[in-house]
Amino acid sequence: MKLTDAFSLIRNGVSIKQYDNASGIPITRIETISNRVVDRNKCGYADIFDIEKYQDYVLQDGDILMSHINSVQHLGKTALYNKVDGEVLIHGMNLLVLRPKREILDPNYAYIALNSLKFLRQLPRITKKSVNQASFSVNDLKKVDIDVPSISKQKEITDNVMQIDRLIANRRQALSVFDELVKSRFVEMFGDPVTNPMGWETGTLADVIRTKASNGFFAKRNAYNPDGNVAVLGVVDVVNRMYSKINDLPRTDATEKDIKKYRVGYGDILFCRSSLVQAGIGKASIVPRGISDDILFECHVIRLQLDMNKCLPEFVQILVSTEYCRNQLMAVSKTATMTTIGQDGVLATKIYIPPLDLQNKFLEVVELADKSKVVVQQSIDALITLKAKLMQHYFFRVLI
């Protein structure tokens, strides 16, 4: 069916002035669905005194929100709204709402279908691109197709896909538990860095590096190609610690001089030096052991090469992610078009420096947790592969 036949409503939201403070009526914005769920912590707020005036824009249970003005890679991102009893949530501008016709289309199935490659591959032909963003109109979207099998078939598809999603979510929760255990053990062994109750030696990050800090490698966007002789770690990899995706890094060509200057290895810690949002600034990640010798770090990242006679990378990784260090980094950041931080700001971060033998004992804790996380991550990867095959089976064949 065309979307206009499968959904009773497809339209943009209301234009109304929003505030960040949590007062008034919550209203959706692009960030609300950044993680493919309706994140109520990322809503704006509006002073609405006559809610009846906006009744047509109050979201209903089973509505689907879709990004239609964004960067190309985030265009068409969706989230399914599950209403909480008594909740009033206003549908704001820059997100579309799609309301399924319940008699022919189950909302959970509709959400799954809108995330299928079969559907998403239709969007480029209705997309208009500008320098900074891409978009498509409501009228063009209405002409796009969606598979609408029988309700019983929809239920089968939904049950199977959502079962895998639940398993993936449970395993990701297990990963976060391991991370919390490591952080808890860190505080037990070293104490709160704010009060330094154990009286460790203090200093700054500048005191525990063996070479000068440096910014990374630059290559023009059109210079990246799959056959390049190097791979490049970018801001997103540092912020999200995506080294499980190390084989999927973008590639380009670099000179021997650049490779020697910007190649990363164990003992390096990388800091995000520019971000669209302040929360991303100064996020850090160490470079794992055993990384290949053809990986560079890019220009929006700052590298510190640690003196491992003073500090171990695994210790520093947790230390700089504490609220104590994060507050210092954000305090020296600057915001114009983007939020940035300089090498001096990173190097001036105050830290404590416990004895190396105690750091080595903490390393044993980290390594044990990492081994367990590898097993869990492998399970997640297998489930993601299974889901992709299932989606291929359901959406690239004739549905009855």
Could you characterize the architecture of this molecule?
The mean pLDDT is 91. The chain folds into 3 domains: 3-147, DNA methylase specificity domains (Adenine-n6-DNA-methyltransferase TaqI, Chain A, domain 2); 149-200 and 355-400, Orthogonal Bundle (Helix Hairpins), CATH 1.10.287; 205-353, Alpha-Beta Complex (Adenine-n6-DNA-methyltransferase TaqI, Chain A, domain 2). The radius of gyration is 24 Å and the shape is globular. The strands form 7 sheets. The protein has a 4-stranded antiparallel sheet. Helices cover 34% and strands 17% of the residues. It contains 11 helices and 21 strands. The protein is α+β, with helices and mostly antiparallel strands and 400 residues long.
Mean pLDDT: 91
Q: What would CATH call the class of the largest domain?
A: Alpha Beta
Say what the CATH topology of the largest domain is: Adenine-n6-DNA-methyltransferase TaqI, Chain A, domain 2
Number of helices: 11
Major sheet details: 4 strands, antiparallel
CATH superfamily of the largest domain: DNA methylase specificity domains
Large-scale geometry: globular
Q: How far is the first residue's CA from the last residue's CA? A: 14 Å
Low-confidence spans: none
